[in-house]
Each structure stands twice: as structure tokens, then as C-alpha cells.
Please model this.
Amino acid sequence: MRSTRTAARLRRHRRVRKKIRGSATRPRLAVFRSNRYIYAQVIDDDRGHTVAAASSLEPEFRERSLTVETAGAVGKLLAERSLRAGVETVVFDRGGYRFGGRVRALADAARSDGLSF
Model:
């Protein structure tokens, strides 16, 4: 049976999620990337609660196409919102995507703006 790219990504994501769990002290920074947008959330898995979120769908990014620069700007916005919510340390969940390009730009921008992971 042939697997699709999406099915393979979901398999990788499930494998990683077995090991990674966000808590109140150290929530999970989850990334989802589509061809048009990138989304990131800081999630407390114990409570099932999203602490902070940012995406390229927001009004200040909507006119921009999804590039490494846009992903970096989303990472900066997420870090700002997380710090405002009292979160300084997170566990990074790349969502089954490779850690490169837009995913890496988001992570690096969040790190440079004060989040540690």
C-alpha cells in the first residue's frame, strides 16, 4: 500500500507526540504548516488549554505570502504573546515537519524574542 505525504507526516507527528507532552510549567509549542499559512500554538496538555496562538492568517500578515520572513514574524508574535501570558519555557513540537525553512524560522524567531526550548 502506498502512503501519501500527509499520512507519512501524521505518522511522524504521532511518533513524536508519544514522547512530547506540554504541562503548565512547560507547555508545548505546536506548529502546523500548510502551503498558504503557518500556525503556532502554545498548549498546556494537562488542561487541554491553548495559552497563546499566532498565525499568518492574522490581519498584519494576511497580504504577505508564506515565506521564511513571514514565518519568523509569526514566531516573534507568538513569543510576545506567550511571555505576556507568563510562559517562558516551552517544548517544541514540529508537527512531523522537517526542522528547516519556515518551521526553523518560526522557532528561531521565538527563541530570539525570549522563549527558551
